[in-house]
Amino acid sequence: MKNVFCALTIAGTDPTGGAGIQADLKTFQELKSYGMSVVTSAVAQNTTGVQSVHHLPIDFIDEQLESVFTDMPVHAVKTGMIATIEMMEVIYEKLSRSPIPYVMDPVMVATSGDVLIEVQARDYLRDYLLPLTEVVTPNIPEAEFLTGLKIESFDDMKKAAQTIVEDFGAKAALVKGGHLNEEATDILYDGAGFHHFTSERIQTTSTHGTGCTYSAALTAHLSQGHSLVDAVNRSKKFVTAALKHAHPLGSGHGPTNHWGLREEQQEIKS
Ligand SMILES: Nc1ncnc2c1ncn2[C@@H]1O[C@H](COP(=O)(O)OP(=O)(O)OP(=O)(O)O)[C@@H](O)[C@H]1O
Ligand SMILES: Cc1ncc(CO)c(N)n1
User: Fold this and answer.
1) Which among 28, 51, 53, 246 counts the fewest CB atoms within 10 Å?
2) Positive or negative, the Cα torsion across 143, 56, 24, 239?
3) Distance, CA 161 to ligand 2 centroid (Å)?
């Protein structure tokens, strides 16, 4: 019998399908992991920004987690938008008892600039959830918050990745240079050493949900048993193709193309 790999996302929603749970599920499907989701907040948003947010009741978030964990295999899990400390507490309860690879996208602000997490909750994210992670995937502003360091160079990115692992207890940190360098270079520190992942910079405004898509790809690859470095390599290719082949949708920052890599591979074949 063929193996089935199951990936779970715990995050907020995006009705336009570019970010959040919807982007995660599309990515899981595209990468051939069975996708599951626990919704934390229902978000009315689109490519221009966030219109409104409804947090789900804490007990109901807990029930969704119970529904999944008591019945289904979970081979890897990711978290995205978790807005409040109360939500984080129930998620901590479950994940601290589940020895599976955990990918944290420490979502704080949407591409549009809208804030997605309560300020007090950021400390809880760092102090409780971060030490449970297999890998955390901050962009530059998120890495600055987590470490308190100012990041203006490649060396600063390395220092931040190392600090997140050595001082805050993540097993590995992948600091994304999308907001900083000319080539889109990300740095992984895994406790033993540094690894660099570089792609060409793509001139596009379709960047809505890039971080969600990247961390979901990582989760899918980890659910399938790939090593961390291999999983990041594959996920970087996936997100680069998703940016490169994005269709111009919406009037703001459009979504990436979750089947971009498949399109690229089909073009090469034909
Ligand atoms: N214009 C670009 N061209 C190529 N790669 C990019 C570009 N922008 C971002 N990336 C890459 O995309 C991945 C996601 O990174 P980014 O830093 O944009 O995440 P993020 O800020 O968390 O995303 P989000 O917009 O969802 O909040 C990283 O590998 C980054 O290097
Ligand atoms: C629900 C959700 N999570 C994450 C992001 C960040 O891209 C977003 N815009 N919306």
Assistant:
1) 51
2) negative
3) 22
